Amino acid sequence: MKFNDKEKFIGAGILVIILGLSISLYVFNLPDNSNLSINQEDVSTSSSDSLIGNVINNLKLNKDEIKNFCGDGFCDSNEDCSTCSSDCGECLKANLCGNKFCDLGECNSCPSDCSLSECENNICESAKGENCQNTPNDCKCKSNEKCNFSNGLCELTTCGNLICDNGENSITCPNDCKETYKEVLYDPDKDYPIIFVHGHSPTEVKGYQPTELEEFQDKLEEEGYQDMGFILPSDYPSKLQKGIWSGKKISVLTTYYANKYDHLGGVVGPDDNQHIDVYSQRLADVVEVVKHNTGKNKVIIISHSMGGLVSRNYIKNYGGLDSVDKLIMMGTPNHGTYGYIAFGCNKYIPIFHERQYTLECEDMDSESGFIGKLNEGDETSGDIKYLTIIGINTNYDSCPYPKSWDNVICTSSVYLDGAENYYYTKKDLPKGERLHTFMVHPSKAPEVYNKIVSFINS
C-alpha cells in the first residue's frame, strides 16, 4: 500500500507525539533535565522517518544519575521488603509470640500461637523445636535412652543391662556395677561397727523411728563413723556380699518394734507389745547382719533405757557372748522400774480409767521374773566391757537408797557390778526436760558423749 504526502505527514506527527510522551516518562525523574538533550539542528522536517531516527539516535540519558524508584523491577540497595514489596517481595513472618503462627521453639513458650493439637500431638516435631527436654510428652526417649537436659537429645544409656560399662560405677549405676570386696578385706577385730538400740516408747508410732539416738549417731561421724542407716530384723539373712562394708567405721540404727519393710522399702509396724525375750531375738538377727556386712567378728552396742535390757538379755541368753565387744547403757533400769514409773509404763485405758499391763513393761518391773533371772550370777556376762551412764537430778522416795534418779530411772537400778559406772549429775534442767532423755543428746550433755567416745576408743 502506498501513502500520499499528506498521509505520511499526519502519521509522522502522531509518531512524534507518542515518542515525546515516552521520553517525558523516562526523563521525569532526572535530577537535571539539562542532561536530556536533543540536537535540533539535525532534525529534518523533510521526512518523518529522519525526524524519528534523529530523536532516537540523539536521545542521551545520564543513567548513573537517574534515581532508582520503587516499581522498576529491581530491589535496589535503598529498598527492602518493608518499603517496596513490589520489587523486593513480601517480608517473612517474624518469629514473635503473638503473630498467630506457631514458630520454631514456641510450643512451650507461646501458648497463644501454638495450640495443644500442634504441640501435644504425640508427634515429636523437631521443626518446631520440640525435644525431650521441652516437650517430653511428644518426644519420649526409648527405654534404653535417657534425656540429656542440657541439649534436649535422647542418648543411649546402658545402665540396667547388667554389664558395668565405661562411665558407669557403683554410684551412677549400682545395678550393673556392684561393689565387690574380698570376703574379709581388713582386720576383722578392728574398728567394730556400732549398733544403736533405742528404749521403750509408750506410744510406738507407725513407721517407727528410734527416738533420741539420731543426734548421737550424727555426732559420731566426727569420729569417722559412717552412718549406714537402718538395719532391721527382717534384713536377716543379709542379701549383701560378706564384707561389703569392710574397711569402714560404720554405725547403724535398729528397732525391735518394727520388724518388716514394705515393698517400697519403708519401715512398717509397729510389731510391739512383746516380751523383752522377743526383742532380744530380733536384736540377735540385726547383729548377725551387721557382722556379715562388715566382715567383723564383733559389734559395739550403744543403748538407751530398755534397750540396755534387750542388749544384756541378748548377750546372756541369745548368743551374744562372742559377738559383742562393748555394751554402753544410758539410763538402763538394770534392776527394774519403781513407783509410778513402773505403774505408768503400762498403757492407760481411758474408758476403764485403768492401766493395762504390756508385756515389756511387765518385764521391766523391779519385781518381775525377767529382772530376777537377768541378774542371777554375773551381772556383766562374758569377756565384754560394760559402761553404764547413771543420771542424777533429784531424789524420789520410791527409789531404793540413795533415793536419787534421772526423773525416770533410779540411780541404784542402773548400777551394775562388774561394769564401769559413770555418774552424770545435772540439777538445773530446762523446763519440761527429763535428765533421762536429756543426757543422750551430745549438744545438751557433751560430758556424756565424750565419756562414751573415750570408752569406745579404750
Salient structural properties:
alpha/beta, Rossmann fold, 458 residues, 13 helices, 15 strands, rod-shaped, 14% strand, two-stranded antiparallel ribbon
What features would you describe in this structure?
The chain is of the alpha/beta class. The protein contains 13 helices and 15 strands. It has two domains: 5-88, no CATH class; 194-457, Rossmann fold (3-Layer(aba) Sandwich). 25% of the residues lie in helices and 14% in strands. Helix 1 packs parallel to helix 2 (48-57) and helix 6 (276-294) crosses helix 7. The longest helix is centred in the first third of the chain and has 23 residues, at 5-27.
Write the layout of secondary structure elements.
Elements (H helix, E strand, L loop, with lengths): L4 H23 L20 H10 L27 H4 L27 H4 L25 E4 L4 E4 L37 E4 L16 H6 L6 E5 L19 E5 L5 E2 L5 E2 L7 H19 L4 E6 L1 H12 L6 E7 L8 H6 L2 E3 L4 E3 L2 H6 L4 H6 L10 E8 L1 E2 L8 E2 L5 H4 L5 E6 L9 H4 L7 H12 L1
Parallel strand pairs: 3-5, 3-8, 4-5, 8-9, 9-12, 12-15
Antiparallel strand pairs: 1-2, 6-7, 10-11, 13-14
Helix pairs in contact: 1-2, 6-7
